[in-house]
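User: Working on a comparison across species. This one is BIG2 domain-containing protein from Candidatus Thermofonsia Clade 1 bacterium. Can you predict its structure so I can line it up against the others?
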Amino acid sequence: VCTQLLEATFTLSNPSGTSIVDAPYIITDSAGSTVQSGTVSVQAGGSATLTVTGIAGTLTLSVSGVVTATSTVECIPPTATPTPTPPPTEVAAQVTGTGICTAEGVVTFTLNNPGGTVVEQAYIVTNAAGTVLATGTVTIPAGGSATITVSGTPGTVTLTIPGLALSISTVCAEPPEELPCGYWEMDADGFPVFYYNTAACEPESLERVWEPITIGGASCPAWSVYHTFRTGDWELFRLGEIPGKPDAPENLSQAINPDWHDINPSRSPDNEWIAYASNRSGTWNIWVARTDGSEQRQATFNERSISVDPVWSPDGRFIAYESDKLGNWEIFLFDVTQRNSPEVRLTDNRALDVNPYWSPDSKKIIFESLRDGIRNIYELDIETLDVTRLSDGQGVDRFPQYSNKGDKIAFVTEREGRTTGQIAIMNADGSDVQLISDPNGDASAIAWSPNDELIAYQMRLGTDIGIYVYELATGITRRVTDTQSLNTSPTWICESTTLLFTSNAPGNADIYSTNALPITAPPIDVKLEGSQLTDHPQTDRDPQNTPSEEDASTRKSRDPKRQ
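Assistant: Here's the predicted structure for BIG2 domain-containing protein from Candidatus Thermofonsia Clade 1 bacterium:
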């Protein structure tokens, strides 16, 4: 019998003197699909019941090993009729409906009754698995409408009104993943890119353990650093030997694990140490190691937050970096010469503050910030923590770099409604802004030459990406590389006019070099005229020598993810 709304009960009676033990049974619906199965036991002279809920229509019970093998019941929800209703055929032709699922997973079905008679019917709401989400009775006024609202689940949700032969379905999408404050993923090239979601930021209080190191006098190294994937993870390798240490391993970061990545190198002024960002501790922290690959030290101790983009001060005393550890992307520093030195928060603003760069005298840091509603460049006094805006407010200004003398700043700007970058220079006080790259291109990855006479950068022009050099004295720009390959991430070999850069001229990314001068020379065919310095089937990219930090790999990072 069907005793209640969509509740079918089968009663098995055993008048014999022998008990029935664990007899297999199966209950099927009108389509022959199994809705319930198992075993049933009935004591001698007794009875047992089997109940099925939430299924409309004909249900059939079959029990193996008993005299009466099958039993059928018609389970139709009762129709509440407080007022007379039209015949089902007439109502079915009148009542229509729609369903919609909101982002919160709430499903609303709207039923419309254009007829002249009130409609009252039983309904059932199920998901794709057939699980009953809701049952009840709905009343639709004549010439009006009614709604049925339930909390849905991902997938198809269906409203069925048996008495009207009406079925309405809608699809609920998976709820969007809640993003943390700082998070990262691999970009199209398989390189880590960092994003932020300030709505999810919460402060993280951390203790720091640090043994001091001594930094010697500044010098320019005969070697360079680059990123490579040749170990199956992103590592930092040295290109060239360390004087007096010909057997030192070329792998500086020494974290060979497919889930560990080491990026963003910054060299100490005496070339004995290198700071970098790594996720080997479970999240992204700042690490420090000797440039021969020894003494790998963790410098920050985040458990959930992210710290990246370390920048060593020219006097060797401090490392500045950016982190979301206090609930927002801010700039911090710590003193490498002091035991357990605290991490000092340099910026304090709810807007994003990123991409720090030291002045040559180590007294100031320039950085980019959204604090005035647009990315602009600001200067921070390390002693007073006073912040001064340097940008003129005429556009988006990003990735600032002091010249080696400290009298000028180069940066990437987007102006006059453009969303592509131009290279610009200004005085250190923010005055006299000059745009120096082609407005039709998309330029980035700035690098001042050691003598401040040249600025190298990469630029996309049409479908080509090449290395360009601007000479400040003459205003002449040279395209250094031709259009036969993609060439990016320029850096200078110290005390020279030689450029290092990434090129796919051999078919995959490797490190090349060439002279930036003469400024009037034509572009080189990289494959034929460039000097190939690495040759590996895996990617080698983003070299670093001068400036002493590497910015090219971060050019897409710290943007809010665009869905």
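For your comparison, note: Helices lie at 88-94, 526-529.

User: Helpful, thanks.
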